[in-house]
Predict the 3D structure of the following.
Amino acid sequence: MDLGKGLRDILRKISGKPYIDESEVKLLIKEIQKILISSDVNIKLVFELSKRIEKNALDKEKMKELSLKEHVIKVVYDELVALMGREYAPRLDKHRILVCGLFGSGKTTSIGKLAYYYKTKGMSVALVGADCDRPAAKEQLEQLASQAGVNYYTEKEEKSSIRIVENALKKLKEEIIVVDSAGRSAFDEGLSEELKKMYEIIQPEEVYLVVSADIGQIAGKQTEAFKNAVPISGVIVTKLEGSGKGGGALSAVAAADTKIAFIGVGEKLKDFEIYNSDRFVGKLLGMPDIKGLMEKIKEIGTEQDLKVIEGDKFTIKTFYEQLKAAKKMGPLGNVLGMMGISDIPKEIVQQNEGKLKIYESIINSMTEEEREDALLLKRNMSRIERIAKGAGTTSEEVRGFLSQFEKINKIFGKFKNDRGFRKKVEKMMQGGNFKLPM
Ligand SMILES: Nc1nc2c(ncn2[C@@H]2O[C@H](COP(=O)(O)OP(=O)(O)O)[C@@H](O)[C@H]2O)c(=O)[nH]1
Ligand SMILES: [Mg+2]
């Protein structure tokens, strides 16, 4: 199963629940375990992660600023980010790069991508074709160099990669020099020796290992093996766009105490990204900017914009303020879902800016009395027509607005009448600056 879809489904489930408690958290963890293990994440890592999620999710101290549901989503998010490694910052000064990896991992392609990346940073780049093991490897790299528009050096008939590299280093003056090394179908003593020699001659500032995401957690073992030969400064994980085992590969590399430097997400030169686990996990969860969203919720919480549901009545005025406040936070559905307000009708959640403007003028055309007591407008065609005229809109629109208000009013009515439900909701919204009508 697709890791991202799996995780999104799990989060959607908890966002759809009216509240979550300890048993819900346990259930959530079980589902996360299942999806991670089926994505080839190491079992030991999965259990460590589960323990931390459980401990942190139920830690009352850490929950002060967010509602329980937001808090749980944040804990899950933070733990996944930690599991998948950190962010990488490639150096942008003059330096030499040695790239290693097994056959078919995407080594040569990734070198082309590196060339393209540094070129777009305005640096001069040369590639060195020193993979003498794979037929046509030199020609393949030559093509990539010309596609990327960078210099290229090789000696077609030369069988010694060491000699090619020695000559290349004498000739090339570019700021970035990237060397393609021998690939083998498996890591062995011969490859280890050759890499050590290459490392000595090149004295590279960076050594990148290329692994394909589809090998899953084996990426960890491969990283360890290569690390024993040369100091790996970062791993390039390729084919991440199509592999269901991407999470397994990334977490295994991170667990091997090695940075993930870049990721390959396609066959083209530009299908290449600097790795950032925040962004990666955000994408998986379908919340590209979860950090920003959390911060906004907190910010607005402290501005007290959302404490409008005060007093004993939910009026058109409070409804409008609520919509406006939520609107500030961006995608309304997401925000309301996170706040635990899950049973708000879809059409309200999907309110767009234009609709909000119409509502604003409708509300502006009401008398103060009407804003405080919507019952005055119920089936009162003359008032509705007056408001529509004043707002420059149709009676239909006004009636639509009123019926939406009714729906929300009913939801909040539940809070008033059901003490048990109310308690749960208050607990759920703990610290969220919400006050429910008494
Ligand atoms: N979909 C996808 N294919 C890739 C990616 N990186 C490399 N490939 C493909 O993987 C195959 C092997 O790549 P190559 O660079 O020749 O591997 P090498 O033997 O390690 O040098 C080629 O068909 C590439 O187009 C990637 O990030 N995504
Ligand atoms: Mg190759």
About this structure: The beta strands are 95-101, 125-129, 151-153, 176-180, 206-212, 234-238, 260-264, 272-274. Residues 300-310, 330-343, 424-438 have pLDDT under 50 and may be disordered.
